[in-house]
């Protein structure tokens, strides 16, 4: 599923920014928050697709 792959990609991309944000870097924190919003939306899309697949298969 491309949504799942996108989730993994987003998390991998922000790893460095998460560490910087923990160190007090405000700009990195902003990037992390933005990426987390994208994670939320992508996860919701994946959830809907999985639900639809379950209904179609069962």
What does this structure look like?
- By secondary structure, the chain is an all-alpha fold.
- Helices cover 91% and strands 0% of the residues.
- It has one domain.
- Helix 1 packs antiparallel against helix 2 (26-57).
- The chain is elongated.
- The two termini are 19 Å apart.
Write the topology of this structure.
Layout: H1 2-22, H2 26-57
Helix pairs in contact: 1-2
Order of helices and strands: HH
State the helicity in percent bands: over 70%
Strand content: under 5%
Shape: elongated
On the 0 to 100 scale, the average pLDDT is 95
Number of helices: 2
Domains (count): 1
Low-confidence stretches: none
| Number of beta strands | 0
User: What's the Cα radius of gyration?
Assistant: 15 Å
């Amino acid at each position: 599923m491309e949504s799942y792959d996108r989730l993994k990609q987003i998390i991998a991309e922000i790893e460095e920014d998460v560490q910087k944000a923990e160190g007090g870097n405000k700009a990195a924190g902003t990037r992390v928050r933005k990426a987390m919003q994208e994670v939320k939306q992508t996860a919701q899309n994946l959830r809907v697709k999985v639900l639809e697949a379950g209904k179609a298969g069962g």
